[in-house]
Request: fold
Amino acid sequence: MFSSNPELRERGTQLFEQLFGGDAREAVTRDSEGLCPDFIDMTIEWAIGGITARPGLDIVTRELVVIASCVMLGHTVPQLRAHTQAALNAGATREQIIEAILQIKFYAGGAAVRNALVHVKDILNSSVQGPPDL
Reply:
């Protein structure tokens, strides 16, 4: 059974909603329904409230690190897309996101980087005015 920390829960909830929007919690809860009812609470308190909300790195940098990590893993397309949108919501630029992905080409491999760019192309192109160029 999950034991809650009210301070981490509050901090995590505020940041989660800022990054992912108010409907995201319900979507994640629905995805894990019947499997692990505590999953979203653990994520919000431990991952968001306990780690992402820490001082030391600004939220844009943290989201760029998560994006690069998703590319490295190669099997986290939903999370890659969610954190790409979260990075934009936090104030990251399209260029910063592309550069964070490109930065790991020689570590993750060309195919992983290309696939990541393809998977987030629609999100990045919708974040700019004028014709898309990705």
